[in-house]
Amino acid sequence: MKVHHLNLCTMCPFGGRWIDGGSGGVLASGEMIVHALLVETARDGLVLVDTGMGLEDVRAPLRRLGAGFVVMTRPRLREEETAIRQVERLGFAPSDVRHLAVTHLDVDHAGGIGDFPQARVHVHRAEHAAAMRPLTANEKSRYRKVHFTGNVRWELHEAGGERWFGFESVRAVADDVLLIPLPGHTRGHCAIAVRAPSGSAEEWLLHCGDAYFFHREIASPPECPPALATFQRIIAVDDERRRKNAARLRALHADAGSRVRIFSAHSPHELRAAQVASVARETKSAT
Ligand SMILES: [Zn+2]
Q1: What's the CA-to-centroid distance between 159 and ligand 1, angstroms?
Q2: Residue 105 alpha carbon to ligand 1 centre in Å
Q3: pLDDT tens, 182-230?
């Protein structure tokens, strides 16, 4: 089992440190990334956790992603950063990716689904329903039908598996990849737990999607730059549930932070830390 931490796109919304907690002024760009995992499993081929923006999104961003998303997040769309091109650079064929495990179906998580037509797409049933039959203005504006055309091989999941650190879990692709329902940001939003490669300091990786955005939101006491906090509140389908689930992640980090590496989809800080840990593990195992 090997896990690659990939950045599928860098987004540069205005807001500087009010977005990323760095040093930029309000008219500077804040840094947000799109953190995905490529998991080499022993028996189930490659599993891609979140798909970022796809090739067609890079070619026609306004049509595919919508003007609102493009203007607000200012994504630096590059073909070489799409998941399919990074899979190829790692020496695999796109058809080696047998499973996509998707935290939710917003454009920056589901845009790459169409680049892997042979893969099974694992998502929570409630999230699929929200994207196919959006009910509110929020849902109608956030999902893009163009990402779900063609013959998508959906595998819809509902809660009912074994508990995982006190959370509901759903076995998505084998015992090593689990969906953990964490609704709030969207109706069927999930975190995705992946068993950590051997030699890791932790036992599990937990990709939390958009359950929170800023790395210090899972610290005690939590912190979040103000513009990013406002954005999360406005975009949430159910903000009370989102905040409750963020509190559960904070408790998990406090209780089991040494056993579970927790990260969100958009934190550059957490992506770099995970990549540094991966390189250190590989260096150690090679010597
Ligand atoms: Zn997102």
Answers
A1: 22
A2: 9
A3: 999 999 999 999 999 988 989 999 999 999 999 999 999 999 999 999 9
Closest-CA residue to 214 (of 265, 277, 274, 257): 265
Compute the distance from residue 29 Cα to the ligand 1 centre, in Å: 17
DSSP assignment of 119-137 equals SEEEEEHHHHHHHHS--SH
Contact yes or no for 232/185 (Cβ under 8 A): yes
> What pLDDT is stored for residue 115 in this prediction?
97
What's residue 27's pLDDT? 85
Please give the model's pTM, rounded to 2 decimal places: 0.96
Q: How far is the CA of 204 from the centre of ligand 1 (A)?
A: 22
The values of phi and psi at residue 231, to 5°, are: -60, -45
Give distance in angstroms: CA of 118 to centre of ligand 1.
24
Q: Output the CA 237–ligand 1 centroid distance in Å.
A: 13
The identity of residue 257, as a single letter, is G
